[in-house]
Each structure stands twice: as structure tokens, then as C-alpha cells.
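User: Before I run my own analysis I want an independent prediction to cross-check against. Here's the chain; please return only the C-alpha cells and, at the end, one sentence I can use as a sanity check.
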Amino acid sequence: HKNHIDGSPITQSCIGVNFVACQLFALMMAVWFRIYLHPSKTSPFIRHVVATLLGFYLALFCFGWYSLHFLVQSGLSYSVMVFAGLEHMHKYCFIVTLGYLLLCQITRVYVFDYGMYSADFTGPMMVITQKITSLAFEIHDGLTKREGQLTPSQKYLAISRMPSLLEYLSYNCNFMGILAGPTCSYNDYMAFIEGTCYQPRHQENANGKENGKYKQSEPSPKNDVIAKLCTCAISLAIYLSLCQLLPVEHSIDDDFVSSTPFHLQVIYLYLAMLALRPKYYFVWTLADAINNAAGFGFNGYNKDGSPRWDLISNLRILDIEFATSFKMFLDNWNIQTALWLKRVCYERCHINPMAATFLLSALWHGVYPGYYLTFLTGIAMTMAARAVRHNIRPYFLVSDSYKRIYHVITWAWTQVAISYTVAPFVLLAVGPSLKFYSIASSCIIDTLKPVKQKNLSSIENTTASAFL
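Assistant: C-alpha cells:
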């Protein structure tokens, strides 16, 4: 039994309850914020102050004095923005912000308790890191580059003036996103605070209803909030029902491996990963609902005139579970983080941007070796998926029946590939991760041996016949 309080199951449960309680409190505050501190009733200054103070209160309640790291990280980065030259400010800010996050992660993992998830104050810091670095690049684009040098996305995100300290803290630490995000652009957040977020800004999202009657009235997020809360309830129920029944660690248990056929091991691994995902569905969907309840997240209208509240949504569950490619899965999982990686790394790195993006993602996630094994595997899987799509997919486009067969095969392959890739991410340590790889490799080799022997036998018979 663990005698220290930080790693005990009781403490972990208490912190989990604290997190959920804080998020439910944030949900109620979000409704109050939208109704009583509406932009038509109060100034942006008051909205910034209230959002920031409520965020600090939730952080202090949930993480105690660990939450001071949020202020230190934000303060150091803001100092870099103010005092460093505009030409290199974004690079210095990126190094300082990510470096401070890594320092906290190393301390938490290797000094306090390896494998400890309780009191994980670095979780909110990961989102703050995304916001700070995005903001630095957007300021750099807005103040040092000409419009012709920017992509359409960068033009929209570019910031033409340095934010005040209050605006900066409100953006980083507001109560709607302090605990679980999601990341959003600074311009979108300011439009929400100032009450201009209902004006169409994304031309690619515009449709006939933008210029019609639906544009004139402020849409209500009520239906979307209720739907997302129902999704949260279902996700939490599924996770609590299955997480203890299907632990990923069981897939490397010696007795399980020795007594279970390979195809059943693959199915178990898929089901174990399937049982883990609802935890993320719950956290991210609840965070999205909180922002929507406050009036943040409006993204135009659908063709039928109904409002869309997915501007900062972090996932699309059905597209994840029925993904037919590695890319499709990644595009719909942790969407805002994928956008951050694309904007600060993939679009700006001139040397092997894909590898650089995977490396940054691994560094941002933390210092567990399993993270790096997962993202290294992810590079290989992405290259393999591209090769398969380029070379094999055309043969299945000749008819609808072939297309359906292709979709079924690629769905199964994608789910297995994702499960194989993500397993070290869950196992965390080097030993269990390498054991998992070893078991998988041995099982594949054993499965292919009869085929190989059959082919060799066939070659031998053919050679003998030719000789005779």
C-alpha cells in the first residue's frame, strides 16, 4: 500500500470529484455570466475581471498552491512578449513557455511520484502553453509581416496590438477553460468578450442563412449544451462501467498472452482502448458545454438555419469511432491541439515538418517514455497509411461494392493501428511498452510462420518439378 497521500486512491478520487465539482460550478457560472454579464449590460473590462477571478478561484480550489505555476508561466511569457524584440519574440516565448512546462512535468514525474495522476497541475498548464505560444506567433504575424506574407488562416488570427495584462490573463486563465480548455484563438476570445462573436467572420463557413433573418438575432446555446451534457453522462457511465473490466495492462499479462489466440488479443486491445476513450469524451465535451453555456463557441449556421456551436469543439465522436484512416482519426481527436500543432509547427517548419510536429506533440504531452514511443510509432503509421492510400485505394474505386469493402477493411485496420500506436501512451514506462511491442512482434511472426513455410514448400515443389 502507498502510505504517501499524493498517490493514494482516496486522494485521486477526491481530486477527480473536485475536478467534476469545479466544472459543474463553472457550468452554472457560465449561464450566469451569459445572462447577467452580457456584453449589452456590462463592459469588456468587467467581463475580463470576473472571468479571470473565477478562473483563479477554480484553479486554487482544484490544485491548491500548485496553481501558482499558472501565474508564473504566464508572467514569464508576458515579460518576454513585452521586453523582447518583435522579430524574435515568438521564438523566445515558445522556448520559455514550453521549457517551464517541461520543468514542471519533470519535477512532478521524477521528483514526486512516477505515474502519479493526482494533483496533475500540469494538465491546465498544457492548455495555457498552447494559448501563450499561439498568441506569440499571432502577435508576430500581425506586427512584423505584410498581409501578402500570411496565409488566409494567419490573416484571420493575426493580432495588430499587444494585449493588456488583464486581457492576457483573462485569455489564459478564464474560468471556462482553466481546468480542461479547450484552446481557442485570441481573436475569437476577444470577440466573445466584446459581444461581436455572432457576426460572420469565417467566409468558408458562410451560407445563405448568414445574410438572412438568422443573422439578426443572437442564437441560444441551450439545445447544444443539453445535448453535450447528455453525451457527458453517457460517456461517464460507459467509462465507469468498463475501465476496470478492460485494463490495458492485461494485454501484456503473461498468462493472458500464453493462453489467448492472437486474434483475440487484438480484439481485447481494441476493446481496452475503446473503454478508455469515453473519459476524454466526458472531459472535453463538458468543457465545450461550459464555454457554450457562457455564449462562447458560436460558429455560424447550418443550412437549415440552426446555429452551430462547434468553434472550439475538441472532438467528433462518431468520426473517431468510424474513422477509416489514420489521418481521419487524428483530425477528429483533440482538434484544437491538432490545430495548434499545425499553426505553430507544421506550417512554419521547413525541415521535415511531420517529424517535427510529432516530436513537439510528444514534448508537450510530458516526459513519460511511452509518449515518445507512441509518437515515433505514429510517424511510421502515418507514412504507411499514406502509402496504402496512394497505392492500394485506387483499385477499390471501381464500384460501390468495392468501396464498401475498402471502408470496412480500412476501418478495422485503423482501429487496430490506433490501438497498437497508443498502447505505450497508456502504459507510460519503458519496460511495459517494450514488452507490449515484443509480444505483438512475436505474435505476428508466429502467425506468419505457417504462411512462410507453405510458400517455401510450394517453391521447393516447383523447383523439384522443374528439375525432373
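Sanity check: Residues 1-12, 202-216, 462-468 have pLDDT under 50 and may be disordered.
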